[in-house]
Amino acid sequence: MSRHRGKNRHRLAQNPQEQVFADNWERWNEHPRSILGYLVGDGNRTGHYSEEEAKTTATVIQWLGSPVGEAFLNECGYARKEKTK
Prior knowledge:
85 residues, mainly alpha, 4 helices
């Protein structure tokens, strides 16, 4: 199991947008020099974080794909762009 998976993965089957956020966060953190490492680092080197910090961060990222998370992003000025075929 990836250390970059959130606590509420049971929600992914019913909410495809949460799945998109969760999958992309996990993929972006596969490299040893992960995004989370940069966020907790000092700007020059990758920082260290605990399993619980990784899980909590992944939970928040997944939440951004939920209806409530999307409302939060909309309030911040972001809107999902519909994919064109």
